[in-house]
Amino acid sequence: MPTTVATTDSVPRSILRRVVIASGLGTLLEYFDYASYSYLATTIAIVFFPPEDRAVALMSTFAVFALSFLVRPLGAFVWGSLGDKIGRKSILATTIILMSGATFLIGFIPNYATIGIAAPILLLLLRVTQSFSASGEYAGAGTFVAEYAPAAKRGLLTSVVPIAAAAGFLAASLMATILYASTSPEFMQEWGWRIPFLIAGPLGIVGLWLRLRLEDTPQFRRVLELEKKQRQSAVDQLPVSNRWSETRKSLPSMLKALLVMSLNAGAYYLLLSYTPSFLIEEAGMSEATATLVVTIGLVAHIIFIPLAARLSDRIGRKRTLMISSIAFIVLSYPIMTLLSFGGVVLASAVLIVSLMFFAMNDAVFPSFFTELFGTRSRYLGFALPFNVGAMLFGGVAPLIGTWLIATTGNPSSPAFFLMGIGVLSLVGLLMSAETARKPLADEQAEVRKQSVPHVTAP
After folding, report:
1. Nearest residue to 252 (alpha-carbon basis) of 38, 44, 443, 450
2. What angle do CA 117, 199, 80 make, to 5 degrees?
């Protein structure tokens, strides 16, 4: 069984504040881009694809969204492995500049009418580049905050990452609402859709500056110091620590994390990315009204996240996550049915209730994931399930929602997808133990304890 290392309760509040801000900004940027793409999907479909068939163009837009997720497991392996080897700070500084650069360039792509098929190809290439770099962002930010946070407040402090993600969605929703309400369709198709992507450039520079000012986490620096002392000891000839061996030991925990991630990824992109298109196509709302509904829901979601995270610090991660899973199994069909009726008040109320239960997953899984793994496998252990889950259940969610309705003719049919991932998440939780209110696990501590004691360096 893993042992534990010293906690980080002594980290000054000023440093914690800087860690939270620097970690959150990159996550905000990542989700601002994803949300902008989704909220502007009906316009992007016209800009980048032949306009003859609206449904085909919209599905092509979501297909590009889904295809970009295929590289996320590869990115997770690359960034997670490097993050566990050389440190969290260096990777987070690299990913934010790559991600913001790719996002910025999307804003300069000519439309389909100008360069033909090259337009969607360039869009896909930049989306893939952005997705590859982003695959190390969320897990790295969550790991970075968790390794600074005291055990009693780890749930609350790591919730800054989902708060930042929701804030990115909110910022994109607000911008889309303002653009659709205040400009003409012609302007939106020519320049309006580009504005959110161009903003990523300066945001990325600010995020890079903030992250470069921080030290790596106390947990990771402590492990490096222990390894340095071990190499200087008389047992230097013995292979005490094998990082890949530890990673293999973490595979069962990764599987549990992946099952829990299925609900987070699928519900996130169905409720927050796909809902505007759903309300426009199925409930007959205008673009401005549909994005307004999501904006209202996101404000509520941001309020719910720290409350749910604090609840998990008190009653446990597992119990909080299970409430969310059961709620989606039971309530998804009524939720999608009521959303299809339309109306700002009804749609907003239904979405707020949905996001209240979703917050009990979204706020808690970052702390739950980080508590499953040791220091030398934590970044990869978080990143792989997170990004594989995003690929399998998240990137395809809008496409599956569109396909289910087109196939069945039932506007409530996306609920079956939500119910299925609710079941998968519940299975993962039933396989898991409680992780809250404990120092972060470190598998290597036990190995060092057995190998280094009573040995004096020559």
Report:
1. 443
2. 80
Phi, psi of 88 (to 5 degrees): -80, -40
State both tokens at 150: 């005291």
Model pLDDT, residue 10: 67
DSSP, res 432: P
Q: How far apart are CA 308 and CA 419, in angstroms?
A: 21
* Separation between Cα atoms, residue 334 and residue 176, nearest integer Å: 28
What pTM did the predictor assign?
A: 0.82
Q: How far apart are CA 35 and CA 165, in angstroms?
A: 10
Q: How many helices (H) and strands (E) does the chain have?
A: 25, 2
Q: Which helix (H) or strand (E) holds 441?
A: strand 441-442
pLDDT tens per residue, range 246-281? 667 788 999 999 999 999 999 988 998 788 888 988
Whether the per-residue pLDDT at 348 is higher than 90: the answer is yes
Helices 414-430, 317-340: axis angle to 10 degrees equals: 170
Taking CA atoms, 445 is separated from 61, 220, 410, 453, in Å, by 48, 12, 55, 12
Tokens of 111: 């439309």
pLDDT (tens digit, 9 = 90+) per residue, 46-55?
Answer: 888 876 666 7
Name the band, by pLDDT with cuts 50, 70 and 90, for residue 393.
very high
